[in-house]
Write a structure and sequence with these properties.
This is Trehalose/maltose transport system substrate-binding protein. InterPro entries: SBP. Keywords: Signal, Transport. One of its GO terms (biological process) is maltose transport. The structure is a single chain. By secondary structure, this protein is an alpha/beta fold. It folds into two domains: 172 residues, 3-Layer(aba) Sandwich (D-Maltodextrin-Binding Protein, domain 2); 204 residues, D-Maltodextrin-Binding Protein, domain 2. Helices cover 44% and strands 15% of the residues. It has 20 helices and twelve strands. A six-stranded mixed beta sheet has the order 1-3-2-4-12-7, with helices on both faces. A four-stranded mixed beta sheet has the order 9-10-8-11. A hairpin with a 2-residue loop joins strand 5 and strand 6. The longest helix is centred in the first third of the chain and has 16 residues.
Length: 424
Amino acid sequence: MKKALTVGLTFALSALGAASAQGVTITIACGAVGQELEFCRSGSDAWAKKTGNTVKILQSPNLTNDRLGLYQQQLAARSSDIDVYQMDVIWPGLLAQHFIDLKQYIPAAEVNAHFPAIIRNNTIGGKLVGMPWFTDAGVLYYRTDLLQKYGFKNPPKTWAELERQARTIQAGERKSNNRFVGFVFQGRNYEGLACDALEWISSFGGGSVIDANGNVTINNAGARNALRTAASWVGTIAPSGVTTYDEEAARNVFQAGNAAFMRNWPYAWALAQGEGSAVRSKVGVVALPAGTGTGARSAGTLGGWQLGVSAYSRNQKVAADLVRYLTGREEQKRRAVEGSYNPTIAALYKDQDVLKAVPFFGSLYNVFTNAVARPSSPTASKYNQVSNQFASAVYAVLTKRQTPEQALSGLQTSLTRLKGAGFR
């Protein structure tokens, strides 16, 4: 298993804190999207200094699909190399057997301070396998200066309005910047595209691919209209290369001043406002646009990450203490103020320091608390296969290899076959 670590996981920092004779070494696997790794490091460093223990940080892959594969490899081998894992919101049901029950180490009052829905999501068979670290929902970033320049009083509330504004701004800006585009999003074939596509489909009243009862519902008029609309963006208001973009690729284009609109997660706010950003003080954030038709609405996919302690850790109690610190109120407030990471503790959305640093946390509170969940619960252990098939079908439409009708008809058939007698 040491070989697997060197291939897929990089030691970002060998040791944090000064080890004492009584201290132990805890290894935590963190991602590196945006400032993710830096905040994992600084938070772990504070805990290490406080406790006298040592922390090793492993940088895991940014793409969730790749990260999950490596985690599963480690856990299947019952490896003790990693004590604490950073888990996506869709993984608790898939990985629960490999994680301890954190309720035995973290007081109920602290657990109950977090959003109940996330605690329920992370509780499998009565076992709390992950403490919420930060939550997420897809949002729309826009250039406040360019909307004003081109006479738009408000950001778009529908996809049709976004298209109109993006076309106008793109045409005007390209007179002096031929790299400028109207809209960027996550179009690469991976979990990020599944998130974006779920937003599009839900916004057109097309449901959530598979409903809460496990019924495959993807082949419907709303879903077809949504994908037809999204495909029309590629090569027009969005660059043809958007089908290779993940979160960071989209952010880099927007933050360089080369896009009018961007779909991304809240983490991008702090980076856009940072020193050296070409769009500093020129960015607004609103809910994603709504589609058209019956059931049309604004929809942001639920995201977020948890921290769990491996059942194969040799230092479970100490590892749980690190998790308790990193997911606690003080650390979540620091991460919100400095990195625009959404807290999972409701009280922090009324904290004046937090709202001053990230104003849209207040105005978009309902977006975060009513986000659209991916169908990980009804599909249980088969979610990864469902998501891969869904993203691949959407990608085929974006790259013009299939029509929405062809892609969704085929997806309906393949998901029904995958379901068999049931997803459980």
